[in-house]
Amino acid sequence: MAEGHGSQLKPAPAKLKSEVSKYFMFKGSDGKDEFDKTTVVCKLCPQELRFCNDTTNLRNHLSRRHADKLFGFSDSGQQRLDVAFACKLQSDSPRAKKITEAIAMLICKDLRPYNIVENEGFQNLIKVLEPRYVMVTRKCLSEMVIPKKYAEVKTNVESSQQNELPLRVTAGHKGRLTRMSP
């Protein structure tokens, strides 16, 4: 804690709701409840900073001198993007499910091997597109995701065939194939 200043140090007033303010103290006037509203002292080092009714200077000081003490929230209380993207997607989240299904469709439609998910280039592509996604394993793809997709497609094909007329193909005039009704 920063001590040894000629003035007494006082905590930031309650009206300063920023996470940044908890790292700074205001210089108080000796023996008075008032404090200097233009100067703050860092609790982590003895440096005095100018305070201009916002936390920009304070935040800059923390990022330059005490980066390890940074926090995950902005002044508005919203989570910062770098912190939000640091947490991984749950495998049962809608976004993760959609990505996993897209990978399965790529494997099926383009006749790719399951181990494509282990390739460095493919993993890099997915990381760029969705940094929070945890790569699906080839075992999961081969034993769960693709068999499920196969069953869905098979059911759709069978149901669409039931709705269609039976197909009899004959070689018509000049070798053209024609559909004949039953």
Identify the notable features of this structure and list them briefly.
single chain; 182 residues; alpha+beta; four-stranded antiparallel β-sheet; two-stranded antiparallel sheet; 6 strands; disordered N terminus
In total, the number of strands is: 6
Total DSSP helices: 5
Shape descriptor: rod-shaped
**What is the ordering of alpha helices and beta strands?**
EEEEHHHHHEE
Provide a short characterization of the protein structure.
This protein is α+β, with helices and mostly antiparallel strands. The protein contains five helices and six strands, in the order ββββαααααββ.
Q: Secondary structure elements and their pairing?
A:
Layout (H helix, E strand, L loop, with lengths): L7 E4 L12 E5 L6 E8 L5 E3 L5 H10 L15 H4 L9 H16 L10 H10 L8 H26 L4 E4 L5 E4 L2
What does this structure look like?
- The model is unreliable at 1-5 (pLDDT under 50).
- The chain has helices at 56-65, 81-84, 94-109, 120-129, 138-163, and strands spanning 8-11, 24-28, 35-42, 48-50, 168-171, 177-180.
- The longest helix has 26 residues, at 138-163.
- Helix 3 crosses helix 5 (138-163).
- The strands form 2 sheets. The protein has a 4-stranded antiparallel β-sheet, with helices on one face. A two-stranded antiparallel ribbon has the order 5-6.
- 36% of the residues lie in helices and 15% in strands.
- It contains 5 helices and 6 strands.
- It has 2 domains: 8-76, no CATH class; 94-156.
